[in-house]
């Protein structure tokens, strides 16, 4: 096995290689505006660090969000394209699940990432491997009672301490955690989601309501 994992659902552009035993190379850069510019060089760098070539990859894991439309689609389109080019399966993993796995907390807690517009993408977890609720997007004040008293991880939790007073790192997801979680689930005979995006809301860029189509005479 040589699993290539990547995620662009948060400001982190993160890539890792897992050989079936452990992560053998990884890279993470935080830059919310350069996902498309940074991802392919990061993949090349990780492969070179591990001394592997693309044709050695046997599968791809990609974070499916939730996340902002522009950043999230960079990782998903890259994963789909590589999967087709290499003829290997592409698996999805919820980005929040990757953060929860990396946090390695026992007992109930919350994962929250920054959704912009003064909102967070979030979900509750029983432990680092078990999600209790579907991912959602809300204003922190609107969910304060639901998460009251619970530890929280992720950039969204750190950004709104009034709603998440017990917030701490990790701030962003790592592809290393995604890869380890995916390998663990596959080894247990579990199924991973299809690599389809969890947008949870419409993209910021939309066609104006009064847009008129001009047709030639």
Automatic annotation (TrEMBL):
InterPro entries: ATPase_NBD, Gcp-like_dom, T6A_TsaB. Gene3D superfamilies: 3.30.420.40. Coiled coil: none annotated. Pfam families: TsaD. Residues 32-144 form the Gcp-like domain. This is tRNA (Adenosine(37)-N6)-threonylcarbamoyltransferase complex dimerization subunit type 1 TsaB.
């Amino acid at each position: 096995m040589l699993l290539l994992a990547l995620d662009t659902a948060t400001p982190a552009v993160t890539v890792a290689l897992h050989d079936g035993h452990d992560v053998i190379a990884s890279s993470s850069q935080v830059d919310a505006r350069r996902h498309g510019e940074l991802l392919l060089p990061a993949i090349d760098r990780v492969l070179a660090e591990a001394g592997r070539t693309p044709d050695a990859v046997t599968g791809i894991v990609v974070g499916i969000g939730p996340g902002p439309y522009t950043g999230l689609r960079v990782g998903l389109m890259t994963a789909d394209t590589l999967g087709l080019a290499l003829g290997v399966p592409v698996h999805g993993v919820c980005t929040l699940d990757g953060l929860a796995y990396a946090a390695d907390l026992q007992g109930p807690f919350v994962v929250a990432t920054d959704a912009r517009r003064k909102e967070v993408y979030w979900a509750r977890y029983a432990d680092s491997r078990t999600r209790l609720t579907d991912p959602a997007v809300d204003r922190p004040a609107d969910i304060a009672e639901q998460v009251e008293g619970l530890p929280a991880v992720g950039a969204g939790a750190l950004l709104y301490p009034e709603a998440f007073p017990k917030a701490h790192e990790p701030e962003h997801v790592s592809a290393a955690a995604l890869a380890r979680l995916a390998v663990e689930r596959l080894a247990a005979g579990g199924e991973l989601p299809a690599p389809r995006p969890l947008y949870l809301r419409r993209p910021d860029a939309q066609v104006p309501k009064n847009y008129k189509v001009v047709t030639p005479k």
